[in-house]
Amino acid sequence: MAAAKKVKPVAIGVIVNGSKPGAKDVLYQLVEFSQGHPNLRLLFEKRTGALIRRPGLSAAELAKKSDLLLVAGGDGSLIDVVDSVFPTQVPILGVNIGSLGFLTAVAETEVEKILPYVANGKSQLIPCALNDIVVVRASASRLARIRVEIGDYLVTEYVCDGLIVSTPTGSTAYSLAAGGPILSPDADSIVLTPICPHTLTNRALVVGIDQVIRVRVIPQTGVPTPGVQFDGRPGGNLRAHEWLEIKPAKAKVQLAYLPHSDFYRVLRQKLKWSGASV
Fold it and tell me: What is d(CA 32, CA 180) in angstroms, rounded to the nearest whole number?
């Protein structure tokens, strides 16, 4: 009989603003949850660990040893942590304690809901896509409900067959077929194109390349969760309460062209643009 494959524990670095009411409650909640999940390992920042008499590390050391940083506090707490760990690329999940926060993604009352996803390693890293990332409904008979945020702002909740997030290169592919605009290759922009939206006023939206786009599926009873595709390849399903975060890659793909290449001539040929007929 083959031995069971050993699963690497998910290391969660915890930083809590001890001056916030309820800080210790959040810590005890995390500790209690971790005791029932051997695949979850909690590490603490020094001042955070001191609150519950646990050893701790500096924020920079914590970031190096963690798969995810969980920061409980407010927007200021999150900003302080980013300043401390940058340019470490560990994901940071903000939990809001107390007053309203715009940068923190999770409310204190939602901690119990998100912990199972963290423990099971549900944070997904989709490979880079040259053309597009598509969220598409899994049921032929039911439309998907897709919530979109750009930066700190809500855009809308689409009721549609799916959503295409396209680069300029991909604007002449699936996005164009779904009614999206054509972008020139040098445009620093991203296109969000809903597929067959239920509301006719929902149109394609062009945003700056430096924007962080977050997509979440609104759960519906009896409706399968939509799938995610990158450049036409399957990337799993976007489950309820999971966010798909899309942002530009650190490096660009360098595409080679022949001298005197003319993008607009290609458009005229491929789309058979012939000009006005008088």
Answer: 49
> Is the pLDDT assigned to residue 225 strictly greater than 90?
no
pLDDT at 79 over 80: no
162-166 and 132-136 strand pairing: antiparallel
Question: What is the C-alpha separation between 194 and 185, in angstroms, rounded?
Answer: 21
> One of 25, 67, 75, 80 is an active-site residue; which one?
75
| Complete DSSP assignment for 164-228 | EEE-TGGGGTHHHHTTPPP--TT--EEEEEEES-SSTT---EEEETT--EEEEEPP-TT-PPPEE
- In angstroms, the CA 91 to CA 68 distance is 5
| DSSP code at position 39 | T
- How do strand 213-217 and strand 243-246 relate by DSSP bridges? antiparallel
Can you read off the two tokens belonging to residue 276? 């006005």
Contacts of 19 (CB under 8 A, 6+ apart): none
Q: 260 phi and psi, to 5 degrees?
A: 65, 25
**Per-residue pLDDT tens for 178-217?**
999 999 888 989 999 999 998 888 899 999 988 899 998 8
DSSP 108: G
More confident residue, 170 or 206: 206
Residue 161 falls in the annotated catalytic set: no
Select from 9, 45, 29 the least CA-distant residue to 118.
9
The H or E element that residue 163 is part of is: strand 162-166
Q: Residue 39 corresponds to which tokens in the numbers above?
A: 């695949």
Cα separation, 103 vs 109, in Å, equals 16
